[in-house]
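Minutes, project check-in
Item: structure for the 214-residue chain
Input as provided by the requester:
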Amino acid sequence: MPAAVTDITESFTIFSSLPIPVLVTNHEGLTVWINEPFTLLSGYTLDDLYGKKPGKFLQGAFTDKETAQKISTAIRKQQAIEDEILNYTKDQKPYWVRLQIYPFYNEQNEITHYISFSHDITERREMERQLVMLQAKIAKVKIPQGWVTRCAWKNTLVSSDGSYRMIEEWFAHNSEARISHGISPEAAEEQREIWLNRKMQQNIASGSNAAELP
């Protein structure tokens, strides 16, 4: 971030060209400027936020209060801070961002503004949530002896000898696993059909006999 700049508006041109959302507040934490990517992400315009504390609009029911307080404390102490927080759009749709907030100094080394960069990490957070849920569900499934569970991006059951088996394959063959997993009979059958079709295509490609399928 630039230090010792006479007028922050000199940096607005640079901020405007950035592909990531940027919000600028004055030294009291009141919004004075946002760029277009910020509006695209949050739904808020400058008219919505000007002269107001952004947290009152962006934070919602499931925003972690401890994280919000940590950010407020850093600004009060005139410190830079980086953290992840759950925000809400203007129509109350939740989204995750990695915030990077920096103080902005004038030539007298006085803080005049704070610059906030919001990196959208919603997709990453959702993937992490799904992996945690998957891990919890797998823990309830009876796994064949000698196998251990691992919550991996490939959704696999990993054996102690290093071999692996796709979870969908295990569900296709094991009704108890499907029941433990909470999959409806209709969804389980659809999943099995998808797996069988895939196996048939693999067998045809490899020259194996399709009749060998279970």
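Outcome recorded: Confidence is low (pLDDT under 50) at residues 1-6, 145-172, 175-185, 209-214.
No further action items on this chain.
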